[in-house]
From TrEMBL:
Matching SUPFAM superfamilies: NAD(P)-binding Rossmann-fold domains
GO BP term, pick one: secondary metabolite biosynthetic process
Molecular function terms from GO: oxidoreductase activity, acting on the CH-OH group of donors, NAD or NADP as acceptor; quinone binding
Organism: Aspergillus tubingensis (strain CBS 134.48)
InterPro entries: NAD(P)-bd_dom_sf (IPR036291), Sc_DH/Rdtase_CS (IPR020904), SDR_fam (IPR002347)
Alphabetical keyword list: NADP
Protein name: Short-chain dehydrogenase
Family to which the UniProt record says this protein belongs: Belongs to the short-chain dehydrogenases/reductases (SDR) family.
The keyword NADP is assigned to this record: yes
Length: 269
């Protein structure tokens, strides 16, 4: 079940700045690798991508990484070209890069708005632009999984309007493109994480915890979830592996929400 032996997976944002814990991109790369996929990763900083590569190789997996800026067309094309030169195919594309900036439309600068749209949304267009024509030509097609957020479905307690808008747009980009490619052997789906405990969440706690009380910040996040706890990167990675696998061969244009029940609830804040 869920084997991905020999499949080539291109993934963005697989880097991690610490060996403590797992970011979502790094966990997805590790899980895909453990299922037999060969990983080719693009990340802003090479050093954090190399940390993930080392962790994957330590477990016997295959991973190569390249410095990439997902908002830059030339850089994304170079990543795709390198993967093709190395492996001659791309079976799985994971668009994981994304970040939230705080603010509603009145407070947010135009510059921040544009950066959010570029990082969270244009990045998904750019990789798709270069990879979909490759997948379409392959006899076995391909599959794309885009990483959104429940902030694209609901207001989740803090103003982050550009993040919410771009994460919602990813879902519709995926649906529309899935229909266009449904007859061409390429499936596209979105994985939609809720509140996830990652190294980045710990950074947020350091920055935003009222009175510097990081434990209380984490407790509040846990209590917002009907299951009583945040998810972790493996919860998102497991859902992603399923969508990437042949077991999901009849699923396209869908969102798989991984949120411990938040979006099914009327709220627990
Ligand atoms: N964490 C959560 O609670 C949560 C919840 C819902 C959805 N998500 C979504 O899940 C995804 C991953 O989140 P995460 O918390 O695991 O993030 P993360 O740990 O911050 O990882 C993001 C990765 O993207 C890389 N990156 C940033 N800008 C880039 C660029 N322009 N080009 C290439 N790479 C770039 C970073 O590189 P560096 O190493 O250089 O920093 C980092 O390795 C995001 O799309 C996020 O919106 C997260």
């Amino acid at each position: 079940m869920l084997r991905l032996d020999g499949k080539v997976a291109l993934i963005t944002g697989l880097g991690q700045t610490t060996d403590e814990g797992w970011g979502i991109g790094a966990a997805i790369a590790m899980k895909l690798s453990q299922q037999g996929a060969i990983i080719f990763g693009g990340n802003r900083s090479l050093s954090s991508a190399e940390r993930t590569k080392a962790r994957i190789e330590k477990k016997g997996g295959k991973c190569e990484v390249q410095e990439t800026n997902v908002t830059d067309s030339t850089s994304v094309k170079a990543l795709v070209d390198s993967c093709m030169q190395r492996h001659g195919r791309i079976d799985i594309l994971i668009n994981n890069v994304g970040k939230s900036e705080p603010g509603g439309p009145a407070e947010m600068s135009e510059e921040t708005w544009d950066q959010q749209v570029d990082l969270n949304l244009k990045s998904v267009y750019l990789t798709s632009h270069y990879v979909l024509p490759i997948m379409e030509k392959q006899e076995t097609g391909g599959t794309v999984i885009n990483v959104s957020s429940i902030a694209g479905l609901r207001y989740i307690g803090k103003p982050q309007v550009a993040y919410s808008a771009t994460k919602a747009a990813i879902m519709q980009f995926t649906k529309a493109t899935a229909v266009i490619y449904a007859g061409k052997g390429v499936r596209l789906n979105t994985v939609v994480p809720g509140l996830i405990y990652t190294p980045y969440t710990r950074e947020l706690a350091k920055r935003y915890a009222p009175g510097g009380d990081e434990a209380a910040y984490m407790k509040t996040r846990d209590e917002q979830v009907p299951m009583g706890r945040m998810g972790d990167a493996w919860d998102v990675a497991n859902a992603t592996v399923f969508l990437a696998s042949d077991e999901a061969r009849y699923i396209t244009g869908q969102e798989l929400v991984v949120d411990g029940g938040i979006t099914s609830s009327t709220g627990r804040v």
